[in-house]
Structure formats: C-alpha cells, structure tokens
Amino acid sequence: MQIELRVCQHCLDGDHGNEKRTDVINDMVNCAEQIKEYKHVIDLDAVHIRKVREDEQGKPTALPVVAASIQNNQVALNDLQLVTEGQDGNMLIYIDPQDVLTVLAGNLDEISKAVSEDVTVDLSPTGAQMVSEADLGARGPDN
Q1: DSSP track, 77-110
Q2: What is the pTM of this model?
Q3: Lowest-confidence range among 42-51, 56-65, 107-116, 129-138?
Q4: Which of 57, 80, 130, 131 has a CA 20 to 30 Å removed from the CA of 100?
C-alpha cells in the first residue's frame, strides 16, 4: 500500500498569489511528511510527495495515475492530486482539495491512535475549516 501526493510547487511557494491555497497546499505537504515518518504504523509501504513545476511534464513519482481536465479546449494535467493504492492494487484518486486534506488528516488520526507521540499537524485556519466541514458520512441519513 502506498500514497502519492502531487502538488504545484508554485502554489506551495505562494507564487500564484492565492494565500489560502498556499496555506492548504502547505497543510497537505506537512500532513504527508508526517505520514511518511510514521507510514509503518498504518502499513504503508511508501509515501511519495511530488512537487511539480510549470516547466516540467509532471509525471507521477511512483503511482501511474494522472488526473486531467479540459481547460480552454485543451487537456491540462491537474496540479493537485492524491492517489492511494490499496493492498488489492486498486487505486483511488482525489483531486478536490477538501478531499485530499481530509484523507491525509484521517491517516494522521489513525496513526495517532497507535503511537504515544504527538503526530498532529497544525493546520492553517482554512485547512482546519475544510477538514471540520468534510462530509464523512458519520452523521447518518438526513431526516
């Protein structure tokens, strides 16, 4: 089992001028780095963090999945994605920032249940709000 987080290096560095996006991308990378340190706790073989620049092709590091969308009648590779590969070889891809951050935070939560060290990551206010508002299906059906 492994995961691969792919982010835009320019967003990570704040070059695109969207401070909230920069904060959330940094939250994602910080979470992934912490997961990487404790990957053995949740039976992950590898955690890959791929930082893509505009001047390169942006191929994945390990998991051969690339999300794309149509922009101005052209195919554009998504600069943000999280790919998870399970034991059965099935891969899940997340491209919505809220989903990506929620999955990463969920992995950290699972790690925190198994270790005595503090593995929490201080999320930005925007990132913390995104995770707290995530619909995890735990509330049951709407009445």
Answers
A1: E-S-EEEEE-TTS-EEEE-SHHHHHHHHHHHHHH
A2: 0.86
A3: 56-65
A4: 57
